[in-house]
Amino acid sequence: MTPRVAVRASGVLPYRVKGGKLRVAIVHRPHYDDWSWAKGKLEQGEDWAAAAAREAFEETGLRVRLGLPLPDALYPVGRGLKRVRYWAATVIGGNGDLQHEIDEVLWLRPRAAARRLSYGHDKAQLDELVRLHRQGRLATWPLLVVRHAEAEARGSWEGPDPARPLTAAGQAWAQRLVSTIDAYEPVTVLTSPSVRCWDTIEPYARRRGLTLMPKKGLSEEGFAQGPNKLSVHADRLLASAAPAVICTHGPLLEPLLTLLRKRAAEQLDSGSRRMLARLAKVGLDKGEVLALTMSSSGSAARVVAIERHRPPAI
């Protein structure tokens, strides 16, 4: 019988490229006297991506933006297995203050890092990072598509539909969404002006001091009046290649995801292609985040990875 996954953890490989040379950050844990990647266990109800960014900050004092996913590590612990999910990550801030579990962070070239790493199961992530760098594929940017959280039912709401608010559960989920969105650090925040979308994404924008940009073309009413506005907004985001998040409604997901499906890169794996095709038909759950990792910009922009972040029970 296959052992169950008893421990779930997330981590990152922070990297820098200067003068064409790749460097990665590894950490030393004095309690174990080992060298590894910044990583840690998921907290109760925490998302994989959120845990990866949190652990990076807590262990190294660095704020990171998640990029391409890297191979998992799976190894025995106690009576089960430990699964660690990893991402390539760019450093975008932080003061580098170390926490009590870590006493040293080293930025090394890949060969030097490979020699320092204490565990064989940490080598696969480094090998993939190096491969992506050599292929010129590490430079990416995130585009997040969010469906608004649970709102009051249409049948029980007496006011105008754009003013229909989130339920108490929807408001609670909007707060929990912050850490997931924060792992990708979008700097552009587009939303339908409808209250249920605005209030879903506003907690993240407030945390990062960002200005929400309401777009009528992302609302159900605006889309009905001018369907072409949706593609205009999407094309502008693709042209800018700035990390971005869009919060919109269920009926707009099919045309939006169909547009993005046409941008699938040749390297996008078959499972992700099928997922994108299926989601273009059935949409996202309320409060779900679809994280698309993008390469390049404008007409050359392509989807190179996809990650679903679905809401657990609150």
Describe this structure in words.
This protein is an alpha/beta fold. Helix content is 33%, strand content 32%. It has nine helices and 13 strands. The chain has helices at 48-60, 110-116, 123-134, 168-182, 195-208, 220-225, 228-240, 250-261, 270-282; strands at residues 5-18, 21-29, 34-36, 38-41, 62-77, 80-94, 104-108, 141-147, 188-191, 212-214, 244-248, 289-295, 302-309. The protein starts with a strand and ends in a 5-residue tail after the last strand. The relative contact order is 0.13.
Using the CA coordinates, give the radius of gyration.
Answer: 20 Å
How much is the average pLDDT? 95
Binned strand content: 25-35%
The total strand number stands at 13
Order of helices and strands: EEEEHEEEHHEHEHEHHEHHEE
Alpha-beta content class: alpha/beta
Helix content: 25-40%
Query: The biggest beta sheet, please?
Result: 7 strands, mixed
The span between the termini is 32 Å
- What is the number of helical segments per DSSP (H or I, 4+ residues)? 9
User: What is the 3D form?
Assistant: globular
**What are the low-pLDDT stretches, counting only 5+ consecutive residues below 50?**
none
